[in-house]
Amino acid sequence: MFKILKYSFYDLMRSRWSYVYFAFYLALGFVLLFLNNDVDKAVITLLNIIIVLTPLIGTVFGVMYYYNSKEFTELLLAQPIKRSKIFIGQYLGISVSLTLSLVLGLGIPFLLYGLTQSSAIFNFTLLLLVGSFLNFIFVALAFNIALSNDNKIKGFGYAILMWLFLAVIYDGLFLISLVMFNEYPLDNLSLAATLFNPIDLSRILILLKLDISALLGYTGAVFKKFFGTNLGFIISIIMLALWVILPVLRMSYKLKKKDF
User: Which residues contact 233 (CB under 8 A, 6 or more apart)?
Assistant: First the structure.
């Protein structure tokens, strides 16, 4: 599995899209620091970019890599290697390469600007941690969708729809339900609904530490009120970890029954 991980990692590192992804975050970091001239403000600006763009890139890269390397994967399946090792190795290779592009792309400009001497170092580190979680989560979800659909067009369509649902539609449905049932106590519903969306979880995790949870509205206020900053941080990290683990377990289960 480690050899497959290294191959997938180096294969993506040679891809021009990895360099484009790295260059985008590198340019974004320099531009934000140039415009804001303040590390704290730049971190806040990066928040919405990271929690929306990173899942999209992870989803597209995950599905694209699965379908493009399908013939090579079938060749590996003919060897005495466990299926789970092949696919988990590929999954880790993609996730690690995307995370490295994110961390280096944003880390270089902020370090050059003097991040280590700023009070925003913890918030920036948290932002990178959340971005890394989102990479691992959405690559895993993309692999699950691709494994369930041999048709490339359907796979891409379902993957983009999944990202669109979690990034946009989910919050819209949630707000509609709050408006329709505003006469009822919806605190517990708000908390439960938030836990089922990794993008909302990531947003809450950062907003709680930035102490600007009011930007999230009702959901953020309820989360902070019931769990507090420290407990909310722990619960958010645990739930993000589960969002990584459960799709990987589902992928391993699916591999046992899939006919290649």
Answer: 205, 208, 209
